[in-house]
Amino acid sequence: MLKLLKSHVSVRKYKDEPVSDETLHELIAAAQAAASSHFVQAYSIVDVTDPDKRDQLAELSKNPVQIKGAARALVFCADLKRLDYAAAKHGKTVEAGTTENFMVAVIDTALLAQNFVVAAESQGYGICYIGGVRNNPEPISRLLGLPDHVIPLFGLTFGVPAQTNEVKPRLPVEAILHTNEYDETKYETLLDDYDETMRQYYASRSSNNKAAGWTEGMADYLSEPRRAYMRDFVRSKGFLQT
Amino acid sequence: MLKLLKSHVSVRKYKDEPVSDETLHELIAAAQAAASSHFVQAYSIVDVTDPDKRDQLAELSKNPVQIKGAARALVFCADLKRLDYAAAKHGKTVEAGTTENFMVAVIDTALLAQNFVVAAESQGYGICYIGGVRNNPEPISRLLGLPDHVIPLFGLTFGVPAQTNEVKPRLPVEAILHTNEYDETKYETLLDDYDETMRQYYASRSSNNKAAGWTEGMADYLSEPRRAYMRDFVRSKGFLQT
Fold first, then answer.
1. CATH 3.40.109.10 in chain B, residues?
2. Region A50-56 average pLDDT
């Protein structure tokens, strides 16, 4: 089992083999066994099967290859809408706009998704998270008819792998694990070591070679504000009001 | 494997058996194999072993039984601080304050945590997520010395289970899965059915019996604003500025 987890890689090319509705349902049922904050189950999944919608999702996400080529393309959504219905049954209203409830819905959805990934990989499928659905969240919300209190967090493509990448070395455990007290003094040395590890990995891998460490890529990537519209989008859907 | 996932329950009582550092490291290494948005790995884990700190964490989280009784008590944190160091190595600054980067860090941390849970459960351990660390995020941040750009999202206790609860029925798959278009018309009927399922479950389970469905509990829980300080706290740590 630890071996299965440690063998995870993003799979971007899939064989032309379908995944049945039955299998999809089975994997989702297993995924739903993940913990949920106060059992709110604040998530939905949209399964995009319509070819035209799939094409549009692919373009809007700027991930055409994975999304068009996968057996299934799912969009995982943080969802407080279903809870609106639950509350209305008892004459009440959900306080969807708090930062706390936004966090609850995002975390719930991510736990569901990761359980789905483990379930799918345990059955021989490969997956790829598609953060690209946040490239055009408003048009994608319209495409999928998402109401207020529902936002697309990420996509997930899956199918039978046609090509598998090498596993990328992660940060050393010591760099993410602190004992009793957060210790940032260790980063200087550990990040130098990790840069060296990643440089060797990037130089030696069979495709997409490059000569860079981890910190360099992070510095380039994170120093520019990305998706600066996100706050307005999230707020337009009724989240993060207070 | 699907069977393992579907057997998940929160474990709140643990045997008095330690978990070695070696095991903890092994589980974290497996957890880290989870996908990470653009490989930012925006998370940290604080392992609270000091008895005094553990007691304080237990009180501040309002979860004394689990936290004091578990072999290990971990706090999972969304963390852009390490990336500050990575960027600084190249004379750059991370745009930590965007809503997008907040979401990236929260999702990354949740994926890590759920992979950790699967890893731990596959080795016979039981776990419990402790959302209660968000009851007092500011004092807990001080207790653990969390700097800016690091916030505690949830705790996780784990150890050898002393008592295992029954698995709670989840929403039916049809209630969370939409095809091509979000369909809220189905909720009325599906939530009635699910209420009936949950009523039977709560009435028949061996402890903590109650006579209520799911929607009723949700209506009560979510109609009151919870943790209304969360936005200020998150912003005070440098997140959600824009």
1. 2-166
2. 98
Cβ <8 Å between A179 and B49: yes
Residues from chain B that touch A223, judged by Cβ atoms under 8 A, are: 87, 92-95
Q: Which of the four CATH numbers 3.40.1710.10, 3.30.1360.40, 3.40.109.10, 3.40.50.300 does domain B2-166 have?
A: 3.40.109.10
Q: Length of chain B in residues, anyone? A: 242
**Does the distance separating the beta carbons of B37 and A131 come in below 8 Å?**
yes
Q: Which residues pair with B126 in a beta bridge?
A: B159
At A56, the amino acid letter reads Q
Please report the pLDDT score of residue B218 as a whole number. 96
Chain A residues with beta carbon closer than 8 angstroms to that of B189: none
Query: Phi/psi of residue B130, each to 5°?
Result: -120, 85
pLDDT tens digits for range A112-134: 999 999 999 999 999 999 999 99
Q: What is the pLDDT of residues B184-216, one digit of tens each?
A: 999 999 999 999 999 999 998 877 777 789 999
Chain B residue numbers with beta carbons less than 8 Å from the beta carbon of A29 are 6, 170, 173
Query: Within chain A, which residue ranges are assigned CATH 3.40.109.10?
Result: 2-165
Query: Are B33 and A7 an interchain contact pair (Cβ–Cβ within 8 Å)?
Result: yes
* CATH topology for the A2-165 domain: NADH Oxidase (3.40.109)
Minimum mean pLDDT range among A133-147, A213-227, B37-51, B228-242: A213-227
Percentage of the residues of chain A whose pLDDT score is greater than 70: 100
ipTM, two decimals, is 0.98
User: Beta partners for B78?
Assistant: B43, B151
Q: Do B110 and A106 touch (CB under 8 A)?
A: yes
In this structure, the number of other CB atoms found within 10 A of the CB of residue B17 comes to 10
Look at A132 and A209; give whichever has higher pLDDT.
Answer: A132
Distance (Å) from the C-alpha of residue A165 to the closest C-alpha of chain B? 13
Look at A122 and B1 and tell me if their CB atoms are within 8 Å. Answer: yes
Helix ranges restricted to H, chain B: 2-6, 21-31, 51-61, 64-69, 81-88, 99-122, 137-143, 173-176, 187-204, 214-222, 230-236
